[in-house]
């Protein structure tokens, strides 16, 4: 009986000790929880959200470049930053849902990849710093007051494609082209901006342009097939809907020997003929440098201009050119990167 009594007393003492310890721990948690701006409580870890419109090579590379660029600057996922990556799978309502989650979670910074993802995120918060990338013209898309002086919580990098050089390339590889189809999604503001530029450039060469628009991916095959026998070439800008379905577009164009000029080099790898293109991986790293300036130095996105790339390179699929009967001028062949598919 004495042994049993000792057990009861010891149990009571232990319970009391645990209660005190628990109250102390709760007090520490509450104190740490008052730390602001989304950083993990008491850890100093910065919480970064990444919202991406859809999966395709260019956007994926921009994301990878951003993450690698942060790591090179000493911000490593799982150590001093925590990256929450969400992909909307091409669905705009998904973008809105993800953006709302990031805003409610009070992220320290958000990277929005592609225009519709950026617009969704910007509509949910005016406080959290938002960096955009793979957005052609942030000002034209209503994301900033101007590309030179954003004036709000949004800045980043543009993937404005070198439309003038691309249209000139089309005339060099297809000197007899009289009618060119402009293939793009009517639901993407960035595409319409580029298409208007393409129309201006085509007019300088006396080329007639034909709008070939889709509102969703399911329309692409029918629209491209309708161009067979009616145009001399196809041009498509950096359009997410078209880029996500480039192998289909390329298959139809190749089978019918229609030269397909694209907005960026990854679309050449997926079946396009040629382009002048920026490097999306490097664009992501460039955006990471902006993130570091915000995280380390507290810079204000409102005063950070939208940044661009100027080091565009020429990409040509020489094997495809030979297959569809396109001759590459020697001066272009010398400087072009031969894309192997």
Biggest sheet character: 5 strands, parallel
Instruction: Please identify the oligomeric state.
Output: single chain
CATH class of the largest domain: Alpha Beta
Strand coverage percent: 15-25%
Residue share in helix: 40-55%
Would you report the number of β strands? 12
Give the tally of structural domains: 2
Shape: elongated
In CATH terms, what is the fold-level topology of the largest domain? Rossmann fold
Query: What is the gyration radius calculated from CA atoms?
Result: 26 Å
Uncertain segments are 1-38
CATH architecture of the largest domain: 3-Layer(aba) Sandwich
Number of helices: 13
The structure class reads: alpha/beta
Question: Describe it for me?
Answer:
This protein is α/β, with parallel strands linked by helices. The protein has two domains: 46-159 and 280-303, 3-Layer(aba) Sandwich (Rossmann fold); 163-277 and 312-338, Rossmann fold (3-Layer(aba) Sandwich). The protein is built from 13 helices and twelve strands. It has helices at 2-33, 57-72, 92-104, 115-122, 163-173, 189-204, 220-225, 240-243, 246-255, 265-269, 280-297, 318-324, 330-335; strands spanning 46-52, 81-87, 109-113, 130-135, 154-158, 179-185, 208-214, 233-235, 260-261, 274-277, 313-316, 337-338. It has a five-stranded parallel β-sheet, with helices on both faces. A four-stranded parallel β-sheet has the order 7-6-8-9. Helix 3 (92-104) crosses helix 4 and helix 5 crosses helix 6. The chain starts with a helix and ends with a strand. 43% of the residues are buried.
